[in-house]
Design goal:
By secondary structure, this protein is of the alpha/beta class. It has twelve helices and ten strands. The termini are far apart.
Length: 308
């Protein structure tokens, strides 16, 4: 059996690979997935087909992946929302630690806090003051309940006692469209989706949710500069169904690390506000465990229904 698995890994892949993306085409996750998929295709001569399975904040895509054959021909560009946060809030048809084989972390994607230009706040301090003076009169949009975008607003509320009204959407695009139109007031979102709009004057960038300022937006302060300890970062990682032969996981990991360490490829991500973050499969598994604990603390602090 070991010899057969080794031989399969040496010839892998011999047919197209499906990369499940739990978000709509055009989303930040989709963009990164397509960049990686193209590099896999170029390296191995087999097409890597992106399969968008959006819905339920990532649950649909994760379920599809968990039930696929563990042969390396279905992989997933997972998000922290779908495999870490949502299982804390609601019953999902998979167990992240049980049903997936970690391959590699791909990027950390700090969330940028943006506002419609009509909001009379130019920084976090002023926004918090508004949220205290006018409780629940400012709407905070998100692409779905339980996403890191949503919990970014909840963290500010917990840390400051400001009150914002959460408005969940069925995806990022609709939320951003309404934010630009002024139907909602503020939002945490990945930089590739909102930073160009902020530079164009259609939105106002208030702060950045990472632990340090982004080189793509060095003049935008972090939320932590006003609220020490604040961190709102989503991440994307490659995972596969549990049971994929270790040799195939190793081959997928090796190519992923090679791609992310390629300077021109990494620069494209950094210029978008993404942070390349290759890991070993073992490191990703441990990181997923630590993230489960961190987000459980946030969910409990926000008074959300922590799944028992």
């Amino acid at each position: 059996m070991l010899l057969a698995a080794s031989a399969a890994a040496q010839t892998y892949p011999v047919r197209p690979i499906r990369m499940v993306v739990p978000n709509l085409a055009g989303s930040a996750t989709d963009s990164v997935a397509r960049m990686v998929a193209q590099r896999f295709t170029d390296a191995w001569g087999q097409q890597v087909v992106v399969d968008n399975r959006a819905g339920a904040s990532g649950i649909i895509g994760a379920e599809v992946t968990s039930k696929a054959a563990p042969d390396g021909y279905t992989i997933m560009m997972a998000t922290s929302a779908g495999i870490i946060i949502l299982p804390l809030l609601t019953k999902v048809p998979y167990e992240s630690a049980r049903d997936f084989s970690p391959i590699s972390l791909v990027v950390n994607s700090p969330q940028m806090l943006v506002a419609h230009p009509s909001v009379p706040a130019t920084n976090v301090e002023e926004l918090v003051a508004l949220g205290r003076a006018k409780p629940k009169q400012l709407n905070c949009a998100s692409p779905g309940t339980g996403t890191s975008n949503h919990l970014g607003c909840e963290m500010i509320k917990v840390m400051t006692k400001a009150e914002f009204l959460h408005v969940p959407y069925k995806g990022t695009s609709a939320a951003v469209t309404d934010l630009v139109g002024g139907q909602v007031h503020i939002m945490f979102n990945s930089m590739p989706a909102v930073w160009p709009l902020a530079k164009a004057g259609k939105l106002r960038a208030l702060a950045h949710g990472g632990v340090k300022r982004s080189s793509a937006a060095p003049d935008v302060p972090t939320v932590a500069e006003t609220l020490p300890g604040f961190q709102c970062v989503t991440w994307y990682a490659l995972i596969a169904p549990r049971g994929v032969p270790p040799a195939i996981v190793g081959k997928l990991n090796g190519e992923t690390v090679k791609i992310l360490n390629d300077p021109p490829f990494a620069k494209k991500l950094v210029d978008q506000g993404q942070e390349p973050a290759p890991t070993t499969p073992e490191e990703l598994g441990k990181y997923m465990q630590s993230e489960t604990g961190r987000w459980a603390t946030v969910v409990k602090g926000a008074g959300l229904a922590l799944r028992q």
